[in-house]
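Exercise 3.2. Students should predict the tertiary structure of the chain below and write it as structure tokens, then compare their answer with the key that follows.

Predict this chain's 3D structure.
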Amino acid sequence: MNKWITTFLFVLLPVMSHGQVINNFDTDLDPGYFGTENSDNADPTLSTTTVTTVSPGYDSPAAIQIEYSAHNSEPWGGYTKLYHYANPFGDDTGSPVGGTWMLAPIAGALRVGPEAGSGEWWSNSEDDVTNRACFFDDHYVFNADGSFQNVQGEDTWLEPWQGVDSEQCGAPVAPHDGSNPATWEYNDASGEVTLTGLGAYLGLPKAVNAGELPNVDVPESVTYMASLHDGNMMTLSIECGTGVFWTFTLMSQAQDTPLSGSWMLSPQAGALQVGPTAGSGEWWSNSEEDVATRACFFDDHYVFNADGSFQNIQGDETWLEGWQGVDGEQCGAPVAPHDGSNPATWEYDAASGSVTLTGVGAYLGLPKAVNAGELPNVDVPESVTYMATLDGDMMTLVIECGTGVFWTFKLVPSQTSVAVTDPSNDIFHSLLEMTPRDGHGPWDWSGYDSISFSYNNLIAQCDNNGNCGTTGTTPAPDRIHLRLNLSDYADIADPMNYTGLGEYYYSFHYILDSEPGWNTVTLPLVRNDDWSGGGFNLTGWAGETGNGELDKHSIGGFHLEFSISGGGDGDYAFGTIVFDEFKLTGSLNQLTNPGFELPDAQDDGMGWGSALGGGHAEILTDAAMAYGGDNYLSIGVTDNWAVYYNEDTVAAQFGETWRFSGYGKQVLGDYVEGSGAAFKLEGKDASGTVLGTTGDVFLPLTNEWEEHSIEFVMPEGTESVTAVIVASRWDGVEVDYAFDDMFLMSMGVLDVVPPLAVEDIGAVPATNYNLVTWSDNAGEEGETYNVYASTSPIEDIMDPAVDVVAVGVLEGSQAAVHYLFHPLEDSDVTYYYAVVCKDASNNVGPAGTSASSITNTAKGVPTISLTPPSSFAADGDLSEWYDSDIEPFMIGATDNSYGTPNVGMGTVDDDNDLHGTFYVAVDNDYLYIAAEVLDNVVVDDQASGWWTSDVVQICLGLYDQRGPKHVGMQRGEEPDYKMYFLPDGAHSDNGAGMLAEHGDGNYYHEVFNPDYVFEFRISLDDILIDDDARLTPANGMRTPFEPMIHDNDGDGWEGQLVLSATNDDMAHQTCEVWSNTWIGDQATMVSTDEDIIVNEFALHQNYPNPFNPQTTIKFSLPEAQLVNLSVYNMLGQQVLTLVDRELPAGYHTAKWYAGNIASGVYIYRLTSNGKSLTQKMLLMK
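Answer key:
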């Protein structure tokens, strides 16, 4: 098959002779590419990243010097980071939702129907845009400080439910008149926009999540699904109750003035100055050092909102002077009235250039500088006027204070969007504020197999006690280590509007104790979970869940993190290191002269050659014109053709896909489709005969440098490949083109044929496990196998009822262990199996299934009890647990409750060295945990992190887990939690801080030494993070659960006991290694919720409805009885039976996964004791 792809936009900097440079730091850092950040609780004076350009660099004119200091402020230590992004932020910084929006003046801007985007039931017409002009001129204002406003003017569109006789224009009606305060939040991962504030709305006020007003109460908040497109359009959808979808199309409104937005003091010398004339710094001007020492001042924001309101946003502290009540100039909490607490407005007069702030205490630059003089010598005024001059991204403000005293301030646009939230972890807020939006997207590094950087460890790390590296009273080498982190955006649906970390990869480098002198680090661009700098590690504690592979073609940026170990003791360490020559190495480029920088003669068998029908093809030297380096190709014609081709013999073979790419621009002439500049690839045999070609693939060149690319699959008999640059034009128009930085690479034989179904699948029963076996696929090499199990015949491996037994089983293994567990008691279980082959090109074949089931005995294991001790008290006395019927989880070195004893890492000698007993329970309000740990030596030493002490760590998921386990920690409908239990309190390892303090009634920790115990409970509401769904416990829920115990006998961390047989100290990174248990005493959720007893025979509407592919059906029974719940199509044919057995009285649920069922209307019927109830549901695929 021949194929080609054109106009790929890759973002790489110039190709150098020894590697692809990402940044050689030979010029001053462009602030648009960089950002810094500290861990949450760090003192900004102790956790800093100060970057300067120094000369010379490593074999180059310049490099960057980083003076770092990391504060041990978190339970695990702390960090300070420097971010380097793939692209500058462009003009569209911050949240894509921020700003002012209106309904788009088009037909269909408002519509309603049975699904999102549908206007089946009603849609506005073009005439409505005019007839309802009072509605289409309403403004929806997303302010930069997170506040939201409905601005409707004197009238808006009203409906009868708002107290008018009929639909008409009229004065806005409370609470939908914008009179109540409101805020907004945009989750760019889910696409949700949430307005919080009574009466705040988008589109129509009646459309809320619970239904339509006035049939439901006015809510405190409303959430919409948002899709941004076409640069300035936003489409919102909201499901009102069940099955009613309103859709609104909004259009962004351009800012009225160049001041609109958020500004900060420019981080440079002379940003503040005072003298006898405007712009003078004769009397005083800030230095570069002041930018660092007054960082609390230079991070203040001056926000000009689109609605005319103004805000001073200063955070926890700003710069204070003596007249504000402090002893001397210093950072401190903002002081009223200059703390932004009073309402204020702004007005800009473009003709005069004046900016006026009205509101007591509102200011720009310095609060003391007012028109009448300097505070405190004059009264605080009601308003302040400045003269503003705008030059690009710089705003210079001048104010004369009294007579002859001129203050000048230089401001730059702020790169923040305060209202944006990170779906994974609030710690990473600064990355959200600084995301590339200039139209190019992430880096493509697929042409290289490694990355390298050079460093000079100028000053080895020291701590605040004077211990440096391996010297000092108490040497502490490697207290801080360097992490080179990568953001992988491959699984982000819309990377240009995404503002998170992506799938986040770390590498670990213990180099900050090295002697001064230049060194180079090279590491492969591959995930190999190496912790010593030999590759990248998917830690799982930050970023999004992706495919688990480092995708080189979509890198959003790299980050230099200086991470300090510790347990939050407040100490810090610091040092200075110089970096240079960040570049990609191990190039896959087959061109010997890709950037036209080398001497290159015609017919010399290397480099490039040309053939001319007319016109020219020549290398020109002009660094200002070239995309990279000094030279570029100039090729042009008039009514003729010219080609430039590689003379190298580049070996290729049948079936390989080759990519040819490079940067091009149009220098002369115009673009005509089907002629002009083109790329071509040719597959040739040993004699040079062309066997196949793409033909001329014409490129839509513009007058800007852009990258273009084609691909071609080599035909049979191919021995070599030739890349050709073409210019041709035949209409009398003279054209000239420029090309630079060409790249020719093989992408391998792209196997797109999935492997065959796996055969010979069977299972051999053993004690509490089945050994699943199969035959490897013949003809495959380097393939892996995934193994699945279900209590029913497997038709679709994506069915949530299908469990994942093993993933990535290597070729040749031909077996996997399926451990069998059951709630509380041993029980015979029957399983069917399926095995899927994934070949070396990641093609996945159809599932092969076992011919029959196998029955074996599952081991009864402890569960999370639905009946916590009625006398629970967090007092360290576990007698109420001992006296209960709750079966505890036990983990030891020689055995555990699951029969899979495992020392996850390190060494635990025996059960006398370490052993744990855990009681777990839940009710409708709380989660309860009690633990008794037998430990021969109890040590609370958190100097290198909380995990280095004797501590219990527990991971659990508060949801019904079916199907594949989570790879990374998730929030939302299936939230995962990690927590650890220290003497001072129970702590979240998800970044949510302390969950309970020792002695507060919810937590008690007591050390006997040997041994220790703790008791803990937490509200099911208080444990939630971000948008987590609250657990409603039900008998039969299967939940991820993994207890662990860390051991320290006085000489540092020694080892850990874990429950799961597959947990090799990886539970903090991935849920895949967590064990499972159940809530209650049943293995399925088609069961009684004992806390909800009903007295009626009822069948409820399924949810969601419509659905794809899974829905939930609820029903209730007044007494124990035989029940049948079945699904039928509209012809009355039975599709399947969901329930057919006796159930006790109470409330029940059943789930239907319609994986291979056709779309349509289906009927589900509940039958019992001669009674029958039916409901309809809609499956939409």
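Discussion points: Residues 1-19, 87-94, 415-439, 1087-1094 have pLDDT under 50 and may be disordered. The first helix runs from residue 126 to 131.
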